[in-house]
User: What shape does this take?
Amino acid sequence: MTQLNKEKFKGRDFISLHDFSQEEIAYMLKIAADLKRERKEGIPHPHLQGKTLAMMFTKSSTRTRVAFEVGMYQLGGQALFLSSRDIQLGRGESIADTARVLSRMVDGIMIRTFSHQEVLNLAEYATVPVINGLTDLLHPTQVLADLLTIQEHKGELAGLKLVYIGDGNNMSHSLMFGGAKMGMHVVIACPDAYRPNPEIIALAEEDAKANGGKVEVISDLQAAAEGADVLYTDVWASMGQEQEAEIRKQAFSSYQINAELLKAAAKDAIVLHCLPAHHGEEITHEVFEGPQSVVFDEAENRLHAHKAIMALVM
Ligand code: CP
Ligand code: NVA
Assistant: This one.
């Protein structure tokens, strides 16, 4: 079983990749790869025996829920699914009180919700590590799995051109943070009205400068895709934006990964999507099912990446 060096991680929250150094992210990726190999070889790794993770969900989830829940079992611990529909939080109990109650009983808290501030409040009051399983602002656990996937297929991260096409949303933000920290060239191609949050762009630019990366936001997707090593997309309307779906369909209609766009990318470019995907909208069915798509490797890597996060911080 891989020995873990938890020195820099134990007790820490995992809320944004901006909070971790390049070296720390590289170490998390190494542990994720080790855990993946051990799992495939049938080597048990009960790093979290006797520990419990509470998983609070205010939004739907397939991958995140299953990855954390199964990951916890594989690490020898237990996971507890807490839907906001069922716990007292949904009836008005405060985040501060919920954080302190859960901290008396569990060893870590994963949360998926709308407001990023809610996660920051939870972390302020919790005395156990808090893991951000997606907010309207960020989706860092997804990007750790994405980096693992890119590293597996490309052998490295630094210097690669990653082009994200679509909405300047939580995925675009976390990709800028993760990519910048790892010395990648991250290009966000989006309509002018849907640019990423300017504060996140500024922070990612600082991260890029300090780590040999580059961050760009442009509206010309053909120019963006030129020579890309990785093409990435996400849904046009995120969770909570259902009522804007029709307007967004029009605004994003040309922001699609299709066979034509793929021609502008490097010959050996890979295609990623955090999923769930809307085939025929942000990505054509042909590309989704095509030889350059690695979306199911990426989905599987949620399990291994999340196990690394939990094993290190809990
Ligand atoms: N990509 C992702 O977070 O998937 P879920 O919404 O299914 O968890
Ligand atoms: N941007 C999407 C990501 C889903 C994993 C959303 O927030 O719904």
Q: What stands out?
A: The mean pLDDT is 98. Residues 134, 139, 169-171, 234-235, 238-239, 274 surround norvaline (ligand 2) (CB under 6 Å). DSSP finds twelve helices and nine strands in the chain.
